[in-house]
Amino acid sequence: MNRTALVTGASSGIGLATAVALAARGYRVLGTSRDPRSLPAERRADGVEYLALDLSSEESIEALADRLAGVDILVNNAGESQSGPFEELPADALRRLFQVNVLGPVRLSQLALPGMRERGYGRVVMVGSMLASFPLSYRSSYVATKAALKGFSNGARHELSPFGIWLTTVEPGSINTGISERRTRYIAPDSPHRRDFETMLAALDRNERAGVAAERVAGVIVKAIEAARPRPRYAVGSNAPFAFALRRVLPAALTEKAVHRRHDLTR
Fold it and tell me: Where are its TM segments located (predicted)?
């Protein structure tokens, strides 16, 4: 296998599982972590070269320009999971979230695309979320970033497919990766939303603990990479085929109610 893949956030969860899966299939794999030197052995995939990347830093992103020029496959997986009532989200937290979840992956893709175009082959996988298709209360900022990422992918794939480059979005549902422990949360001490917010978070954590393994998502990412003509979207977890089928036939109001009931919200 002469293809080189770069997977962001390759030290845990979906990113680590994807790096392991690609390396096992013979790809040359580069994985990123904010601080590769501090990674313990259990968070390193065999056969993966780890690079430093902080998506909140434009300087850190630009430092990878030379390596990205030789990348055939880019998996934009790293990101932040954020929760909070819409009216209470701090402006600086929103700016950071969009930098990490949207602007950072977009810039990485821009840096990789010229080399892909010259070689006549490329795959860019945006790891989104089913919440971009099934929005949830108190997750508006996270939903917005994943919807934006999907929008970039859906639009740009038409520009780049004539050059042999395909962009696609993989939308995981509830995945058991421990991300609930790293989720950022913003809520005012006297927030009128506190009861529903905490109810939603408890249900979200419960659903994620019962979610599918990261390895299953990695398998879908590999499937998208190796497809001759990747689809615009792949979804996995949370009974994705059934959920999307119902959305096509149910009124929007009923779909919204179903999503919120799954998270113990009745309004």
Answer: none
Terminal Cα-to-Cα distance of the chain (whole angstroms): 52
Strand-pair partners of 213: 176
pLDDT tens digits, residue range 174-217?
888 776 677 899 999 999 999 999 999 999 999 888 888 999 99
Query: Which of the four pLDDT bands, split at 50, 70 and 90, describes residue 103?
Result: very high
Q: Could you tell me the CA-to-CA distances from 262 to 1, 129, 160, 171 in Å, in that order?
A: 43, 16, 38, 18
As given in the structure block, the two tokens for residue 51 are 């690079």
One-character DSSP codes across 46-91: TTEEEEE--TT-HHHHHTTHHHHTT-SEEEE-----EE--GGG--H
The predicted structure's pLDDT at residue 180: 65
Catalytic annotation on 50? no
CATH number, domain 4-262? 3.40.50.720
Domain spans of the chain, in order of start: 4-262
pTM: 0.94
Contact 221, 171 (CB under 8 A): no
Reading the block at residue 70, the tokens are: 């030789």
Q: Which residue has the tokens 């993989």?
A: 170
Quote the pLDDT of residue 40: 83
Using CA atoms, how far apart are residues 171 and 140, in angstroms rounded to an integer?
16
